[in-house]
Amino acid sequence: MLAESLGPDPLASGAKWKPSGKNIKDPGIHQRQRGGRYRRQASSQRSCFLGLELKPELVWEDWDLGGEFTETLVLKNIHSKLQKLHVRPPLSKFFTLIPQIIVLSPGTSFSMPISFRPLQRCEYEDSIEFQGKDVSFQVCLRATIPCHALEVPDSVLLPFCAVQNSTTTTFLLKNVSKLQTCFQWECTAPFQLSPEQGLLKPGQECHITVLFQPQEALVYQQQANCKFGEEGDKADSCCTVLLQGLAKYPCLQLRNPGTMDEKEQCGKELHFGSVAVGQSLQKHFYIFNPSPVTASFSLSQLSSGAPLLGSLFSCDVPRGKVAPGGSLRATVTYTPAVVDSVSVEYLSLKCRGALNETLIKLTGNCVGPNVSLSSSVVDFGCVEEGGAVVQTVAVDPMFLDLIGTCHSELQQPAILKPEHLVLYKLHWYHRQDLQDTPSDMQQDHNVHLDQQGALCPVEEQSPQKPDSAGVVYRNPMEEYYQSCLGCMDPLSSSSSLSSLHVSLMPSELLFNYKMSSILSTSSTSSQPVSITNHTREKLSLVWTVAQDSPFTVSPPLCELAPLKCTSFRVTYDPKQLNTLHGAQLECFAFYKDNQDLEEQVLLPPWCVTVRVIGHSFQPGKEHFIPNCSLMPPRVVFPALSILSHQTVLLQNCGDLPLTFCLDHSLNPALAESVFVVPSCGLIQPGSHQILVLRTTPTEDCPKQGFSLHLRLNAAKHTKELTVVSVVEQMCMSLEGDNSLYFQPTAVGSQTQRSHHIRNLSRLPLRFQWSIPEPEQELISVEPDAGELHPNESSVQIWSFSPLAEKTYTLKPTLTFWPIQTPGCNKSHLTLNVVGMGAKGSIEAEKAVLDVGETLVGSYRSIQVPLVNNSPCPVSFSLSVQQILLDEELTYDPESEPNALQLDCDRGTIASHATMLLRSTVRPHRRAQYLWTISYQMLNASGFVSSPPQTVCEVRAHGVFPTLQVIDVWGGGSVGSLSKVHLWKLFSLDRLNEHMLSNPSPAELIYRTPTRHSLSSSPSIFTKVLLDFNFSASPLTSEPSTFVLMFHNPGSIPVNWAFLFPEDQQIELEYWAETGEFSSTELHRMKVQDNHLFSISPRSGTLLPGQQRAVHFTYSHDFAGTDRFPVVFKLSYGREILLNFQGVTVERDRPYLHFASKRHVFTSVTIGNCSPPRQMYELINGGAVPVRYEVDMAVLSQLQVDNFNHPLLCCLNPEGVVLPGKTAMLEWIFSPLEAKVYHMDIPIHVQDGHSTLVRFKGCGLNSPTLGSTTPFGCSDTKASEPCVQRLPFPGQVLFLSEDSVCLGDIPVCSRSSRILFLTNVSHTDTVHYTWDQQSNQQVVQIHPDRGSLCPGESALCTLTFTSTDYPTAYQLDIICQVIQEAALTRYHDALQRWEEEKARQQDEFTITDKDLTQSPEVLIDKEPVAAPVRKGPPLRKYKTLPPICASANCEAVGTMCTKLTRAERRAQRETAKAWRCPEPPQPAQLHLWVTAHSHLLPEYPPHFPNQSNEPYRCPSSVKPQQPEASSSSTSLPAGLPPPTHGPDRDITMHVLTSLLSGILDDPAFTQSLITLASKPITYQLRKTSPSSLPSSLPPPPCPTPSHPTHQRQVLLSGTVGQKEQHNTVDSEGTAGCWRNRRPTQNTPHTEHVPADMSEDVLLNTLQNLMIEAVRGELVLTAHPRTVILPPFSTRSRRTSKAMAEEDKVDLRNRKESAGT
C-alpha cells in the first residue's frame, strides 16, 4: 500500500551516485561518468556488426599526462563471405591509428592498435568509422578520469513500526570507483544510520543499518545525505537516499479461549473458581495483535494494597512481543493460602506506544478441607475390664464424642448410652440457673423424655419467661479448647465458672526441659497436678495410664468433695535412655452417686487431660536433629476484632520421634496473646500434629506480624511461625477525588457516567448507596448495593436527569461495613455530584441542501451536517415530509413513497459537535422533490418531549439520463449535403425530443443493455420509432458517413449503447436453434454479416457536459434498399428504435432521393401581390444525370379548382440534376383563403419512377399595424445549431458558425456578416476555397480563397444582396479545404508520372529474356470498364450466394456473375497500368444562409422595429415598383457581381491613408478646435439609437486572412467557445448606410461615392474586430463618459495646450497600434 502511494518501488536497485560538488564544472561529465560503468560493462562484451565481432567501444581508464597509451581493437569475421573495410581514423589528434584497408576472410581476426596521447587532464571522446560496401558503423573511443563514485539505492523502505518502538533494515553501500573513498552520513530523527562514517577501498561494499524509531503515527520520508570523497575535510561530493517508514499505533486485545461467544472474546476477567488451600490451578488467555506492527508489552500487577501473604496469582509472561496478526499465550497460576477467602487481583497489560491500557481481572476462591464423620458419637458399649473393642468411623466432622462403659468384678456402673449425652447437652444449653446435680435434672420441668427415652426440652407456653433469653451456645471449637486447656477459656465469651465442672492445672508438663514458660517445666522426675471440683456433688476421680508408659500418676483414683481441690503427682521414669517420650494422661470425673440414679437421668463423666513430654538424654549426649515442616509458615487472622482461629500443620518428616513445645521467652507479651493448642507434644516419625491458634486481633499488633517459636527435641532447634493478628480499618476509595461531574444535560433528558469504587482493605465489605429523597428524581446509580472483596473494584453507572436550567450540587452517601460483622460500626463516604441542566437545540449547517439531479431509480447517498451549538448533548427524533414541486404532477401524498430515507431517525449529538446525518435519495419519478426534515427532543425515557422543529430542507431533481445531438457532419458519399439536409435525414429534431423526454415503464424493463431474447428478431419495448436515412449513392461509391456529436446536457453520467439484434439475442448452442429463417431475417443476416451498417463506437459513457462524436457508416456494396433495426439504449433511460435505411443505386439507373416526401411552405398572407419565392431541394443519388419534370397538369387542375387562381406555381418545372448534386425547385405559393392547403404534386423522372410529394401551405389574414408579424424565417430556419463548438475527428478547418440567418430584409438590400476560418491543426497548413458559382448573384465571400498556417485564423466577410423579388432564401455555400501536405504529395506523384510518361515516349527496350512481361502502361485516366454482362434473373427460391463484400465487385444486380475473358484481360491490363495521379479530394465545410426578403412597401408596416433603418439599393439592382410587382409573377434578372477591381482598391486605400494622415496632422487638429467656436452652419440628421449599437462583440477565434492589405492577427484561445461573439452585422451599423437620403444640409456628401464610404467604414469595423481579438480593444467594457467643463474664454486660452496633448495621445496610440 505504501509503495503505491509513494511512487515506484523504494527497494529497487539504485543508480550510481556520482560527484555533485563544486569542483565539477561540466554537467555533462556526471552523465558520462554515471553511465561510464554501464558502457564499460558493455565494452567487455563483444557485439556483431555486418558479420564482424568486435567491441562497441574502447575505454582508457588508467592514464597520465605526457604518456602514450595503446589499446587493441580486435575484429573477427564471423560471416561466410570475405569482408573488405575502409577505416576512417579518429577526428581528434589525441587518438591515432594507421589508416588502412582491412580484408578479412571468413573466420579470421585482425588486431588494430589505437594510441592515446593526452595533453590535459579531462575526458576525451572520439570514434573511428568502418565503411563497408553499402553501410558503415562506428566504434567509440573514450578516455575517462577516475573519480569517487558510490552506489546506493534510490530509496529504502523500512518495515512497519509501532510508535515508540524500532525497526531496522540494511542496504548496500558500494564504492564503484577506483579510488579510496571516505563517506559520512547525515540523517535526523526518527532515522539513524550505522556506521555513520567509514572508508571504502575500490570495489569494497559496506552494509548500512537503518534504525527507525518513530514517536508518532505518521508517514515518514526523509533524505539521508552521504558526503563522500577524499579523506579529511575534502569530501565535497554528496549522494542521497530516500528513507521511508510508516509508523502506526500498536493495539493488543485479550482473548479468553474458554469463551465461545465472539462478543466475549475480548473478556477482561479470568475466574478460577474454588481452589483448595495449598493447591494450584492454571488458566491461560491469549494476547492478540490485530495491528500491522509488532507490539511490545508488559504484564504487571496493578498497584494496590498488597496482601500480607503476597500475590496469590502469578503469570509466566511478564513481557514480550507479538507479531502482526499473531497471538501469545499467557498462563496465570492461582495458589490460595487462606481458607474461605476470595482473592481479587488485576493484571495491567501495557503496550508501549499504545493509546490505552488494558486490565484483566483475576478472581479465585480458597476452600479448606471438607471433613465429616459418619457419626457424631461412637459408642463402645460395655467392655470388660482389660478387654478391647474396636469401632470404625468414617472421617468427616472435626469433633467426635467417644463414650463407653467399663465393668469389673467389683464395679458395674450403669451403661452410658448416646441418649445420655444428648440429654446432658440439652440440659446444659437450656438451663437458666446452675443445675449440677442429678436431682436438679430430675426436677427440671424444661426437659422430658422423648419416645426413645432421651430428654428433650419442653416448649414454653408462657410468654412471660422465654427460655431463649438464657440460652448460651458453645461451638465445638470452644469445647475443644476448654477440654484441651483443662480450665476456663479466657478468650471465649461463653466461658464462665458456671460452665465448668472439673478443672485441671497445669494442662501440660515438661520433664528435663529448661526454659522460662508458664508451663510447669522441671528437670526432676515428678511434678504435681491439681484438680478442682466445681460442682455441688461429690466426684470420683480415676486416672487412666498405659501400662508401659514412663509416666505414672499417683494416686490413680480418689474422691473429691464438692468445690474442693486435690493434687496428684506425675512421675517420669524412663526405661530407656537417650530418647524422647510423650503422652496424654486422662482423668475421668463422675458423680459418686451416679450409679444409683435411674438410667433415664444418667450423666456422662467429664475428662480432663495432661499432656506430658520428656527426654532421657544424658548430659553431653547430642539430642536428635529434628526434620520437620511447618505449613503454612505465616498465619494471617481476619482483620476484625473478633475471636478467630487458624490451624497449622507440624509434620515430622524424619525417622526419629520429635517433641515440640511453645517458647514464649522471646516475645512473651505478643506470644501470650495467641493460644496454641497443643503447645507441646510428641510426634512419631512420619506423623503430624495440627496446631490450632486462637486470638482476637488488636490494633496495636504489628502490621507485619510477630513470631512464635517452637522448640524442638528439648534442644536449641526451633521452628518459627509468623502470626499476623492486626485489626485494619475499612478503606474504600472513590474515583475522581470523591467527585463526579456531569456534562451539561438538556432539561428532560438523561446523561450517564461511569464511576469506580474500590475496596482497599483486606476485609470483604458490603456497600450501600443512599440518595436523599428530593435528589432521587435527579440522580440514580446502578448497582446501588453489593459486595466487594479485598482489592476488588466495581463500576457504578450514574444517571443525571435535570429538571430545570440550573447547576445542581448533590451529595449521595456510600455506606460500607465488613461482611463478617454486619452489626458493627459502619463507615460512610460522601460523593460530590455536580451537574448542570441546559436547553438544547440542533440545526443544519445549510438551511437548504440542494442535492441536484439524481438518476430516477438509483441510489445516492448524502450527508446532512447537523450542528449542536448548545452546551449540552441533544437526543432527538427525526421526521421527513415530502413535497413534489412540479405543478403538472398529480399524486397522492399518502401513497407516494418517500424518496428520502434516513439511515437513523434517532440519535444524540454531543455539545458543540457536528453529526453527519447519512441519508439515501432514491427518486421514483422525474420531478422536483422537496423534503423538510424536522426534529423533536427526547426525554430520558426515550419519548418525545417537544413539538417538531424544522432542521433543514433538502431539494433534489429526479432525472433520467439524457443525451442531445448538437452537431452533425457528413463525409464520403454524403459529404456534399448540407447540415440542414443531414439533420433532416436522421430526424435529429425528433431524436433530441425523445431523448429529453421521460421513458415509459416498458422501456425500463431492462434498465441496462441485456441479452433477453431467444429470437433473432428481439422484442421491442418502446413505441418510439425513428428513421435514420443514409441517403442514396451509387454502387461501389464511398461509404456514406454521418458523424453525430452527442452532448450530455444533464448533471449525471450517461451510459449509452447502440444494440444490434445480435446484441439482444441470447446465444444458444447450435443444436438448440430450430426452424427456418424468414426473408426478413435472411436480409438482416446479410446486412449484419457484411457490416453494411456500422457504428463507432457502439457504446460509451458521457460525463456531465462531455461531448463525443459517433460515426455512422453505410457501405454501398450491394444494390438495393437496406433496412436494419438498431435499438438506442440509455441505461436507466430512454430506449429508441432506430430504423437504419440506405439505398444503393445501380450505376446506370437514374435516381432522385427525397429526404422527405412532405414539405411545408412558409406561411403567406392572402392578397399578397408578390408572394415569396420558395425552394424545394432535389438530390441525385445515382451515378448518371437525372432529368426531372413536375406534373404541370396537376398544377393546372389546382389552379382551376381555386377559381383560376395560381395557388401553386413552379418556376422551373423541368431540369437536369447532375450525379451527386442538388437542384432547387422554385415555387410560389399564393393562398386564396386563410386556411391550410395540402397539395400532392407528382415529380416524374425520365427512365425512372415518379414520386408523389405532398406540399403543405398556410394562408394567413392580412396583419394589422402593430400586430405580430406572420413573416420571418421560422419555417425556413435551420434547426441544427448555427455554431460548431467542437471540431469533428479529422477536421482541420473550423468555421466560426455553420449557419447565418439574416432574418426579414427588404428586397434589393445588402447585408454583411463576418466569419472566421481557423486552422485547428498544430502541424498542417490548409488551403480553402469558397464555391460561390451557384449563388454568386446573391452571396459573395471575401476573400474567396487563401491558406492558413497551423493555429492561424482568417476573417471572411459575407455579403448578401437580395434580389428585387421577395424570396425565402435557403442557400448552402461550400468551402473546400485541402491540406497542403496532401497537395504536395499529389504534385510530387504527378511530376514523377509526367517524367515517366515523357521517358516512355522517347525510349523503348528490346529484350528476349521474358517476352511475356510488359512494362507498365501510362494512362491518363482509369479506363471505363466494359459493359457488364448481366446474368439471368434469380429465381425466387434460388440458393443465395455467399454473403461477402468485395471492393472490386462491379456487378450490378447480381453477386456472382462471371466475367468474360475480354473483361478479365482488361482488368489485368488496368491493374498493370500506372494511372495518372488524381488530385486529393477536398473536405467540405457547409455554410447555411437563410433570409426572407419583402417588398419595400410591405416591409415598414410589417416590421415597424426595423423600418427606421436606412437602406440603400445597390446601383446594379433596380428596385421593383409596387404596381409592377402586383401583376408580374416573373423573376427579376440576376444581379451582376459587385466589382472589386484594382481601381476601387487603390481608391479605398488612398482614402484610408489620407484619413490617417489628416488625423495625424496637428494643423488639422487645431482647425477642428478652432471650428468648434464657429456657429453651426448645418445640422446632421439624427439616427435612431438602434442603428448604431454601443459595442460589437468580438468573434471567438478571429484572425484575418493572408492578404497584405489587411492586418494580421494571431489565433489565441479555443475556437468557437462563445457563440454570442461570432458575427458583426454591418447592416445594423454604419457599415451599410443603406439608401441614405441626402438632405438639404448635407450637399457635401455627394462628393464621396456611397460604395467607397461603405467599404472604408467596413474596413474600419474589421480592424476594430481584429484589435478586439488581439486584446487591444475591449468591446464589452462599460462606456466611460467624460464631463467637460462649461465653455468659457479660459478654455479657449487652453485650447492650444489641449491640442498638444491630443497630438501626443494620437501619436502614442499610433505607435501602440503599430507594435
From TrEMBL:
Residues 31-40 have a biased composition (Basic residues). Residues 1-41, 1499-1545, 1581-1605, 1617-1647, 1689-1715 are annotated as: Disordered. Residues 840-958 form the CFAP65 eight Ig-like domain. Residues 735-809 form the CFAP65 seventh Ig-like domain. GO terms for biological process: sperm axoneme assembly. InterPro entries: CFAP65, Ig-like_fold, Ig_CFAP65-like_9th, Ig_CFAP65_10th, Ig_CFAP65_7th, Ig_CFAP65_8th, MSP_dom, PapD-like_sf. Residues 1145-1262 form the CFAP65 tenth Ig-like domain. Residues 1698-1715 have a biased composition (Basic and acidic residues). Residues 961-1142 form the CFAP65-like ninth Ig-like domain. Residues 1517-1531 have a biased composition (Polar residues). Residues 165-217 form the MSP domain. Pfam families: Ig_CFAP65 (PF24291), Ig_CFAP65_7th (PF25249), Ig_CFAP65_8th (PF25248), Ig_CFAP65__9th (PF24816), Motile_Sperm (PF00635). Gene3D superfamilies: Immunoglobulins. Residues 1591-1601 have a biased composition (Pro residues). It comes from the Eukaryota. One of its GO terms (cellular component) is cytoplasm. This is Uncharacterized protein. It comes from Perca fluviatilis (European perch).
